[in-house]
Structure formats: structure tokens, C-alpha cells
Amino acid sequence: MYTDIEIAQRAKMEPIINVAAKLGLKDEDIELYGRYKCKISIEACNKVKEKGKLILVTAINPTPAGEGKSTVTVGLGDAFSRIGKKSVIALREPSLGPVFGVKGGAAGGGYAQVVPMEDINLHFTGDMHAITTANNLLAAAIDNHIHQGNKLNIDSRRIIFKRVMDMNDRALRNVVVGMGGKVNGFVREDGFMITVASEIMAILCLAKDLNDLKVRMGNILIAYNLNGEPVYAKELEIQGAMALLMKDAIKPNLVQTLENTPALIHGGPFANIAHGCNSIIATKTALGLGDIVVTEAGFGADLGAEKFFDIKCRYGNLKPECVVLVATVRALKHHGGAKKEELNIPSVEKLSMGIQNLEKQIENIKSFGVPVVVAINKFITDSDEEVSYINDFCNKLGVKVSLTEVWEKGGEGGVDLANKVLETIAKEEENFAPIYSEKESIKDKISKIAKTVYGAKGVQYSPAAIKQIGELEKFNMDKFPVCMAKTQYSLSDNQFLLGRPKDFDITVKEVRVSNGAGFIVALTGDIMTMPGLPKVPAANRMDILDDGEIVGLF
Amino acid sequence: MYTDIEIAQRAKMEPIINVAAKLGLKDEDIELYGRYKCKISIEACNKVKEKGKLILVTAINPTPAGEGKSTVTVGLGDAFSRIGKKSVIALREPSLGPVFGVKGGAAGGGYAQVVPMEDINLHFTGDMHAITTANNLLAAAIDNHIHQGNKLNIDSRRIIFKRVMDMNDRALRNVVVGMGGKVNGFVREDGFMITVASEIMAILCLAKDLNDLKVRMGNILIAYNLNGEPVYAKELEIQGAMALLMKDAIKPNLVQTLENTPALIHGGPFANIAHGCNSIIATKTALGLGDIVVTEAGFGADLGAEKFFDIKCRYGNLKPECVVLVATVRALKHHGGAKKEELNIPSVEKLSMGIQNLEKQIENIKSFGVPVVVAINKFITDSDEEVSYINDFCNKLGVKVSLTEVWEKGGEGGVDLANKVLETIAKEEENFAPIYSEKESIKDKISKIAKTVYGAKGVQYSPAAIKQIGELEKFNMDKFPVCMAKTQYSLSDNQFLLGRPKDFDITVKEVRVSNGAGFIVALTGDIMTMPGLPKVPAANRMDILDDGEIVGLF
């Protein structure tokens, strides 16, 4: 059996210019980055008319191993191609940090991958680096402004905007900058986040166009002044240079799957302090180029799909036609209380206890008015009885189930799923609407998410959060959608409450605003925005040999 | 009159694929980055046979405004094209930091520029970002190693390898990292340099191929252990991943001038703590593709040309055929004691005092056995008498002088210079040799450079430098060429000693090793490796308009 990278290296890639041509893109519509990657020009993106049907792939609350959401997304896209649809996939860009940390690459898996996977997982077309640079230009401008006289009266104790690096580097989480005397500026506490946690990444993914991107970057709340009033990036007159740095990053990237289905890979914000979806520009472009577009959102449906609907679809005016909810028999047994060593042992009993997680996530999707199909990502240890149990359970809810084998078989393993998605779209009416209005109060918005989606009894607020909400209301930064930062492993804010927890409260510890991106972040726990490297980093096994062969990327 | 960016935007660029084709490069030899930039594959670089003649453009000790070295390099390349030569230019890549700081762009000027200048000055093909990432992966691995048990016994007080960012950010010069408790690692002092100061940049520019790059990166001296012994990067087993990150950065970038002459722009190390030349790989490739190759080195001839000869040519086994020494009438009067406000006033007297700087730099070039031609970069304020004076002075030394007007007229303004270079090559014999053997002692090497090139009486060493030399000898890291870090404004180590100072000593304050790059750095003063932004950064005037027009890059 081949590893992911070995499979990827054996792919028969088409020149990307041919992939683009099949989508109706002409030579002048694209900019090549080597033979197998290109960017689509903004003019070409603006030219297309949205016509495709949008399918979101999401999941139950995952186990730490993940349930194969990206793999199903890629495989489903390939399956649509196989049944004669003009299919386009829209995915997030991987971040370099995790590639060298624990994770290795992030471009699907097995026979459902996007390629060239080495490039996608390394620098790709430089979008991450552009974001890093724009972010750090703004950060440098803040400290420079203070050093050069601080006309804006910035309170150096209340600088919100942090530097970023696309690296897992725990030593940079908390730093002191400006040391060494007068020529080096004023000493202050600071910290680095990983690039994907930058507000600029979230902005890239929500912006309509370059001008909107510039305006939003100018609106970033960077600090408070000594009178306690907000200071925005535009007051430093730096958003023009930042936009200039982002001039190519804003263009969607086109690559292909192992089966030559076109894939737009563009933007990849954090799924906790940001909304965790690929860019609106790429999604809309995909909808203009394809008849059917398969996309995904980070984490389980309670976080990923909720933010996809309430933030991305709201800003992008998108109408999802169907949701594919990925589950594994193993994860459902995990939700039913099976221990790690029991996951391979068939047990309809554990499954029947854990399936409530799936049930709740189905209800969640339906509460947004979108039809749902369940995809069981098949493992060799799944028993027929377990699979039938899920089938029967979902059918009672009026939901179709498909057993997918895309990891092993590529698109062929997803044809049944693709057909069930098409049947569902044809039969069930899409009636999509967000579950709250952004005009409601912050507390009302959070309450609706917590009660409707998580199934919580109520919401508690820390004193700090109450103060922060007051401040956002005072400065008119409260009329944004809410971006919840919560554990992905549970419907609650306690990662150990599996299945479908009941009678729990959500506790909001902190409330921030991403005033440029246009959302309020409600944190229900400590969110790590700069990962660290493990004892033996994935980087240690990576190499490029004399003949150019790349090893150890997975 | 147009600004540089306006001229660049009006350029009639050829598709880079055509520029490449004229050099004999086939489609499979290049990787496009958009329509007007490409990388040349390593296979294609290895295939070509060196046949071209190598011309180095250097200068007298400059004024802070610079003497137009890059502009002459580009203009001379265009001039060679005009007189029917297959001409290729080999330049350094600009760094983003200075672009947003004081300097604006760095791709020649006036009608002697390389294009697309916006891209070249911004992210270009991502080489800088790859270096930043490889550098910071190693830095993260060092702190991670200590955090995870410190098997190598690294002395956290003696970590030499620093993090980098491609930004002018004084707040990062001196930082404390690892704060916030146990999960964030051990607290220690650290600092950031600008990316071009990274040893990895120097390595990229001296490496033969990807494997050599990997070996050299593994040889970087990163720290000393608690027993006082050196610790190298390879002990962290990270050089494979670093090489992987550099797999595209190692390929030379091809662009063109305003007049469509091919230009390889690749690598750009600091000219003080590193050797300040573009990559050996690009220079050798240019020599394989063209009949005549024009390249440059940072700062004046005492620093730039010396390092070009003693470090780059030594490692690359290159034989320069001729040197073009750029001077301006204004700078020579400055060396003769003219004040800033007097520079526009004709004065043969001041000129006659300052011309000794030119005389010494001519002698310096000749001491390496290479013929020299003087190029006067013409200003409107230059008087005929002043120009004749320089002509007569140089002719007495047997050196040809050309008045170049490439800034105003492009290649046409450099045709006379090009012809004089060709005449000189035809007439004078090149007899190139470095001025010292790398096998000599560190002090002997420094002494030869100081006495022969700078005209110093002797060399003084600080107690710290003496200790450091002893350490390098002890650990067998002393048999490398020496890279001098010295003010560019004077032949001495005192920037205020203009003209041709005599009876001075050079003081070496600090000696370091770049064990991966393969040179010893001797610092004669405080060298700034992380610039800061000025009161009004160039970034503040930059913008990209709704129609995509870029403004304020110069």
C-alpha cells in the first residue's frame, strides 16, 4: 500500500492550463505558477455568473484523528465528475506550521487528494507569506508610530494586534519586544500567532474584492488609546501598502485532484477565533465555473457549518443546496463511550448511544433550512450490523445515508454519495436562512447559537466578557455576526462531554471583535493561537533527495 | 518626466517565455510565475556550459544617495544587447523591508530598470519567504529541542542563530522569548534580523546545488553547549526539511529589462555580515546562456568587489574578465571635501582632491589581476572641465573612462561604455587571483585585506575578537575566506575619513563564523541587522487602486 505522498507522486496530472480550459478559462484569465498551479485573475472571477449548486461537507464532533472531511470533499468532487457533472472543489489552504509539526500535509488523503500535494503543503502560491507580511507590516507600523512620537496616543498596554509567523513556535507565544534602549523603541509585552490566526486571513476569506479587502484591513481594531478609545489600522495610513502586498493573494488558486477534477484552494482561517472556511471569492468563482461545487468548513457541524451559514453565507450571500455530514462508525462509538482500544470492536450498543451526536448535528443542519445527507467514511473494521443501524436510524429521520470509500477508491467510492446528494437536492426544498440577525444584541446572538445549535440550557458570562461586551456596544462594534471559539470535540464547551450532552451551560470567558473581518469572537475556553512543535517534529523525517524526490511529507 | 514606476508601467514587456526562448531555454526548462517571471529548472541550469564573459560592476565609496551601480549594471546589459551581444544581467533580489522603509524599490532606475518592477520589489517568486521560513523552522527547532529535554545540552545563553523577518521592525531587534510559563518553553534573550541577513541567504548564494545547500545548512553553527563546544544545525536533523522548503528558491529567477534584455535576479545577501552578491547558481547559469554577463556587488569596490573576488569567485571558480567602476562627479567632490550644498557647483579643485578615492579603487581592482573601466554616471550639473579632468586622470593610469547616461537614455546611454569594456577585454589580459589563501590564519587574511585593499597601516583587535579567533581556531572553523563588515562610506573603518585615507588602523571588534555559508565575519563596527521604519515610511504613500494601478512604490 502506498502512502499519501507516494500516491500523489504517481498522479497523472494534467497541465493546469488544460484544467482551466475545461472550465472555460482562457490563457489571459490565469497566471501560471509552474505547470500545475495557477491563479485566476480577478477580472475572470468577476466575469463569471454564479450558476452552480453549493454543497457543504461537514462532520459530527470529531475525534482527534479527524473523520476525513477533506478526503470526502475531494472524493465527492471526483464522484460528481465521474457521473458527468461539471464539478469544482473549493478547499482551504494548509498552513506550513502544522505541516512541520504533528500533522504532515493537509490536502485530502489516500486516493482522494489534491495535487501537487508537495507544493500545496509548502509555499503553494505564496498567499500565506503575503498575509504574514501584510500583518507584520501593520505590526511594525504600530510600534514605529509609538517610537516616532505616538501622535495617536496609543496605549502600549492595550495593543490588540499581534505579529504572526507561519510556524509552530511556542517560544513566540509571549515575548517582550523593543528591548535594548532608546533606538529600539519602547519595551512592551507582545506575542506571535500562527499566520492562519491573523485577522487578515479572515478578511481575505470574507472580502468581496481588493477594495473591500483594503477597507476591511483599514478597519482592524489595533489598540485602544490612553483615553480608552479604539484605534484602527487606517489611522496609520498603512492599508494601501497592505492591499498592495495582497494583490496576488486575493486571486483564487486553481489545482486539480488525482482524478483531474478542478479544485480552488484559497484562504484558510482558524476555525476557532475565525470562521474556518475558504474564501468567498473562490467559492463564488467556483459557482461560476462549475455546475456543482463541493466545499468544507473546519471542525464539526456545530462550529464549522454554523459559521459557514451564519458568517460566510451571510457575507457572501450564498445559498447552500445540501449538506453532507461525515461520520465514522468509530467516532460514533467513541461518542457512545467506547474506549480507544474498543473502537475496532463491533458494538451496536455503543453505536446506539453515540449516534445521538449525529442526530443532533442533523437537526442543526435542518434548523438552517438545508437538506442533509449522511456520509459514512468507511473503515475496514466497520461491521455490517453497525452500518445498517446507522442506515435505519437516519432513514427514520428522513435522511439518506451513503457508505463512502473515497480514501481507498477515489471518486468511484463516492458515486453513491453523489447520487444521493443529487436526489436530495431534486426532492427537498432548500430554505436557507441564518439563525440570528446580526442586528440583535451580542448576548442574544450567542444565546441563539448556544441553545439552537449546541443544545445548551443557557449561557454564562465571565465578568471580563460582560465588560468587553459593554465596550463593544459603546463603540458600535456589536452589530456583527458572532464567531464562536469552542472545543471541536463536544457540542458543549467541555471536550469530555461526548454524544449529545444535555442540561449544560456554555461559559463565555472573553469577547473580542475582529472589526475588519466583521465578526465578534466569543471564547468559551483558552484557545491556542500559536501551536508548538512535538518532541519529534514531522520536519525531522522530511527530506528532498538528490534526484529531487521528496520524502516524509506525510 | 516620469517616475521610475511610471516608466516601468509603460514598459513593453515580452512574455517571459519568449525571453527564455531567445536564450535557448525550452518550455520544460522554465516554470512560469505569471506571464513575466519564471524560474529556470535546476536541470536546465546544470545543462548549460559556461561560455560568457563575466563583467562586474562596482563603485567608488558611495555617498548615502548611492552612485547608481544597479542602474549602470542594467544599462550596460542593455547596451551590450544593442551592439548585438547576447547579453544577460545577473542581479540581487530586493528585500521587502527597505521597500516599505526609506528606500522604495530596488530594481535599477530611470530607463535602466528590470521589470515587472512591482513584483520584483514585492514578493517576487517567494525566495525571501522561503528563506524566512527555513530560517525560522531551524530557530523553532532549537527552542523546541531545549523545551523537550535538551539532549544536546544547548547553552541557552549562547544561541547564535536568530529568527528573521523580511520587514524593517526595530522592536524585534532585542526580544525575550519563551515567556508565560512551562508550556511556552524556557525564557531567553533573542533577537530578529531582517531576512537578507540570514545565513541561509548567504548559503543560497554560495551553494552549488540543492545537496550542497542542504549540507551547508546542516553545518550552520547554531549555538554552543554547556561544555563550550559548538552545536550545528544538523544535530537537530532539520536540514532535510529546510532543503525541502528551499526547493524552488534555489532555482534562478528570469525577468527582463525595459529593453527586453534577460535578467537573472536571484539571492541578495547583506553586503556587511555577508558577501553581498547574487547567487553563484544564477551567475553560472547566466554565463551558460549569454555571451556576456553583467553583474554587481554591494557597496564600494573595497567591500563589494573584494568579497566578490575573494568569496564568490573563489567558491564559484569564476573568472571575471573586466570590472566597471562607477563614480559620479558629485561623489568625487564629496570625497574631496565638498559640502552637500556645494556638490552642484563645478570645482575641479575639490574633484582633484577626491579623485584619490577612485585611484585607490582602481588599484584595488588591479591588485586582483582584473582590467578596469571607469563609468561616470552623468548628472546634469557635471561640467565639461570636471569630466575632462577625470578622463585625463584615468588615462594616465591607463584606464578608459566612459560617460554613461543610462538612467536617462537606457541602453543607448551605455553603448560607449559597452564598447570600451569590449576593447579592454580584447587588449588587456585577465589574470585573476584572490589576494589571500583561505588556508592562512584569520589574522593574516584580515591583514592582507586591510593593507592591500583599504590601505591601512595595520589591524587592531578587541579582546573579544582575540578570544573569538582563538575559539574558531580551536574548533577548526578558521580556514574560511573572511567577510569584512565595515562602513561602506570610507576605505577605512571610520565613515568620516573620505578620499584616500592614510596612516590608519582597522579595528576588528568582533569575529563570528558563518560555518554553513563558509566564511568568517570580521566586524569593525556595530552592524545593524534589523533596520527600522522612518517617521513617514514609504509604505504610507503606497496604494493599489480599484483598477489595479499601483502607486507610490517609488
Automatic annotation (TrEMBL), chains A, B:
The keyword ATP-binding applies. Its EC number is 6.3.4.3. Keywords: ATP-binding, Ligase, Nucleotide-binding, One-carbon metabolism. ATP binds at T63, P64, A65, G66, E67, G68, K69, S70. The keyword Ligase applies. Belongs to the formate--tetrahydrofolate ligase family. SUPFAM superfamilies: P-loop containing nucleoside triphosphate hydrolases. PROSITE patterns: FTHFS_1 (PS00721), FTHFS_2 (PS00722). This is Formate--tetrahydrofolate ligase. It comes from Clostridium cavendishii DSM 21758. One of its GO terms (biological process) is tetrahydrofolate interconversion.
